[in-house]
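Render this sequence as a predicted structure.
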Amino acid sequence: MITQVTGNGRVLLTVNQNGEWNELFYPFPGQFQQLRESRLGVFDVSGGRFAWLRRGNGYEIHQTPYGGGHLPESVWTGHGIRLSVRDHVHPNHDLIARVFRLRAEPARPIRLFAYHAFQIAESMYQDTAFVDPAATTLVHYKRGYFFEFFSEPAYSRAVCGEHTLKGLKGTYVDAEDGRLEGRPVAHGAADSVMEWDLEPAPDRDVEVRLFLAAGRSLPAVHQVRDYVRQGGYARFVRESEAFWDTWVSRRLPSPPKGLSDHARQVYRESVLMMRHATGANGAVIASPDTSSLVAAGDTYNFCWWRDGGYISKAMDEAGLYENASRFLEFARSCQEPNGSFFHRHFPDGAIGSTWHPPPFLQIDQTATVIAAVWHHFKRGADPDVLLGFWPLVKDAANFLAGFREPTAGLPAPSFDLWEERLGVHIYSTAAVGHALERAARVAEEIGKDPSNWRTASSEILEAARREFWDADRGLFVRSLFPRDERLDASVLLALKLGLLPWDDPRARAVVDGVERRLWNPEIGGLGRYEGDEYYGHENPWIICTLWLAEARLRLGDRPRCRELIEWVAGHATPTLLLSEQIDRRSGEPKSATPLTWSHSTFVDVVHKYAEAEARGEIPEE
């Protein structure tokens, strides 16, 4: 499971519960996942004892983000050894620094081993790994992707080999007798091990700085390597730490003092998570988690327009205005000729995999991008922004205005926001009505005629209030054509988008009904919908619980909103990450962890809570 994350918009690194590199994405966050496996091992020379660092073999690990930038740190202790591991992705070079600090009680010789198996361009075949004795480096490459390891002090030995094929386990086996004796070059399913012979003592750290340069050619990674060696290894570690300390102090708004210290830390991690999940090209991935790949054949390493739109709005709230702007530019480059947005895209802009039949459409995604443009303008108040995004808004709004049933006036069928059912859905309908009203505001702001979109918005929302309302139960059904009466937490988001005024008595009835039925009686938190079986029966979801928090805030119950914010913070991982959902009995994270949308929704609701506390009123959506 991912426990820590850091990146620079091109390189995204995740660390797992064993303090090992879990995923290494390059050249985009979410694409490509270049790493198959990594391991750290120690050999106690005096005792003749070797161990890969894992729980349960006499070693324990403690993980806590360190510094202002919440950078990854893992500390292993056991058998009289203490090994601290800190990971840095340099802010403006495609360079990872891994700093080991080792102590031993009593003082004795220890060998440290680092094993890496790559899957370059997400294939473990046709790779090459070689040791360069002249430069004291180790290189993995395939086609246009190159990765070069070098360190201070230089490794004592380095070998290459193979894994998986030919009945081979992996070159890590070569380390398990405490001495490397393998080859200097390997190809195919190539892997490698580096060894450092160290003399740690109880009263001082022995430090090893291991660097990995990523690039698209051998000269490119050599250039970074030489730059680090000429400038000094320690300098590049200090630069990473200093950059994130400065970034947090200058860019990160202070969370409200009314929240617990823990919730404030989760808020900071959430802002950083949005930053790390955004590529330099503006793509925002749903999650760096690849754990679903084996079971489902796919991952969350895509840009969804609904997720991205809501994340963009939260980035604006948190002061990440440039990141939000880059996302909208990316959206503009990916928009379909008819104005809609395909189900999801790879981080490089190519259309992503889908389980929907043509036209591969969830209309709320197109709607969310329009709303994000208006929100971006509202936070920056620069009309030039609207001029730049006017073609995107115009084409998307015209598509939505035309994608309607001729009889009831509702949107035509598409897939719901949970990506499971084809029909006409309450949330999707509200999202379209909201987006067309926002498009009308954009048009009005730059002197265009807003009347057609405003009329369409009014017609759609009026039809929604009429067609979806079940007067006998006092609730909205979640879908029509076919009719589906199950309670769904997304109706809370529909209320947020203007389905009903908050002072309408039906709004409170809907919120009360959803909380009464979908609230988990065992550990708390709000489920998605009645009968949900995704990763467990009606597990509470982070975003749904936060939608309830905002609904309670808008109904005037600020204490309940704060309780729900604290519930979410209390169910972050020990390293402050928010998952997609929580196991309804154990309280453990389930499904994608971290989920960027969970973090962005936390940021958004915290900001709305803070504004309400400060002003004594509810801010406008």
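Summary. The two ends are 35 Å apart (CA to CA). The chain has a mean pLDDT of 95.
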